[in-house]
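Researcher: Go.
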Amino acid sequence: MNPMGYILTAKMTLSYIDYIVRHDMKAFRGTGFIGSKYRVQKDI
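Model: Structure:
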């Protein structure tokens, strides 16, 4: 694969990951806290 093929593949992968995250934000809301001492509070 040439360099443009790698760029296209990366853009397609990024687009698909973005789609998944945007359509299930509740599942990904705590990802910013990975590796820290903080946790997401559970809904009451």
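Model: The two ends are 51 Å apart (CA to CA).
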